[in-house]
Design a protein that fits this description.
364 residues, 3 domains, Dna Ligase, domain 1, five-stranded mixed beta sheet, alpha+beta, Alpha-Beta Plaits, disordered C terminus, five-stranded antiparallel beta sheet
């Protein structure tokens, strides 16, 4: 079987870099893009920061208040509200450039994508390195952005490799170098292994990739369950068969709110969720849409996101169904004991336009 070759493209400090492109004079200053809350003052958290700001310990998830404290000595620091409409327009232009180089293109988010280029470069890793540099050059020429590229035989390793030499990096993991590449990593560098898993492993004296490789699959399944245990066993060996799947940005409608306080209390969160559902349903009705997928998003106090969604049997525009499904998803997510929730969102997708009278309530 011929070797797959997968590229992972990851834009460097994307939101802050977009701001630097818009205002080039910012490039020599610490730039911090923030998600300000409606609680006033400096309430909110850092979405991303450029590398100058990161030298002072300002990273995603840090509160704006602490970020400003760490940058006190830099009187040229700039704190900007996130402008997602602008970032999306820059992302769209960049993704259209990337697509031209792919056999198969998979959109992941505004700042990252996977490409399967196996056929285009005839399964040749040397040519993969060349095409990666061409992508980087064209993106820089047309958008003035830098990105980092990881190249390997699967999505997992390419994802890790794109983060290996940031910013503006290019890392190729050849098939005969996989073991050595992984051995040099920290456990937390393996995509999908979070801080809590790393802590649990450390409790067992497992602090390096080599230690982790010594664990058999049965021990890992006992510790983390069948799905997660099997994933960890394969991941530390660079094994991943997931294909690059064509995927475009999903058309969806959503509402999100910053809560009055950080909380993991169901009743408090449910009250906010039902209000979001009311607001979202008004948009759904106004735009004459029906939805088939309902999803909710919890933004935790470290700014990490947890999402969960459910597909319904039939398209609907029912507020009752939206509320019922959202409440079920919220309860399931809280059963997993997330950190305190700072922002709460609800969205619908797989949208269709309603033709004619959708239900008797609309008629009256």
């Amino acid at each position: 079987m011929k070797q797959r070759i997968i590229l992972h493209i990851d834009f460097d400090y994307f939101y802050a870099q977009c701001e630097e492109v818009r205002k080039p004079e910012l490039k020599t200053s610490p730039v911090v893009v923030c998600m300000f809350s409606d609680r006033g003052n400096d309430s909110g958290a850092v979405a991303t920061a450029n590398y100058i700001a990161r030298e002072y310990g300002v990273n995603s998830g840090l509160s704006i208040k602490f970020a400003k404290k760490r940058l006190e000595e830099r009187t040229d620091s700039v704190f900007l509200p996130a402008d997602f409409e602008f970032y999306s327009s820059v992302s769209e232009k960049s993704m259209n450039i990337i697509k031209e180089f792919a056999d198969v293109f998979e959109y992941v988010g505004r700042d990252e994508a996977y490409l399967d280029v196996s056929k285009k470069i005839e399964h040749d890793f040397k040519r993969a390195s060349h095409i990666s540099q061409q992508i980087k050059n064209k993106i820089r020429e047309e958008t003035k952005l830098t990105c980092s590229v990881g190249v390997s035989g699967n999505k997992l390793l390419s994802k890790i490799a794109s983060n290996y030499k940031k910013p503006d990096g290019l890392t190729v993991v050849l098939p005969d170098r996989i073991s050595q590449f992984i051995e040099d990593l920290e456990i937390r560098d393996i995509h999908g292994i979070g801080g809590k898993t790393e802590e649990r492993l450390a409790e067992e004296g497992i602090k390096t990739i080599s230690n982790l490789k010594d664990l058999d699959i049965f021990s890992l399944v006992q510790m983390f369950g069948r799905k997660s245990g099997t994933y960890i066993f394969n991941a530390v060996r660079g094994i991943d068969d997931e294909p690059v799947t064509p995927r475009a940005p999903t058309a969806q409608i959503g509402k999100i709110v910053t809560l009055k306080k950080d909380s993991d209390d169901y009743d408090f969160l449910e009250e906010a969720l039902l209000q979001l559902c009311d607001n979202l349903n008004a948009v759904i009705i106004k735009e004459n849409k029906a939805f088939k997928i309902v999803g909710i998003q919890l933004t935790q106090i470290d700014l990490s996101n947890k999402t969960k969604s459910r597909m319904l049997k039939n398209p609907t525009s029912s507020l009752e169904m939206l509320q019922k499904t959202s409440k079920q998803l919220l309860r399931e997510m809280l059963d997993d004991k997330p950190d305190l929730v700072r922002r709460l969102g609800v969205k619908v997708s797989d949208l269709t336009t309603i033709e004619g009278q959708s239900n008797i309530t609309n008629y009256f």
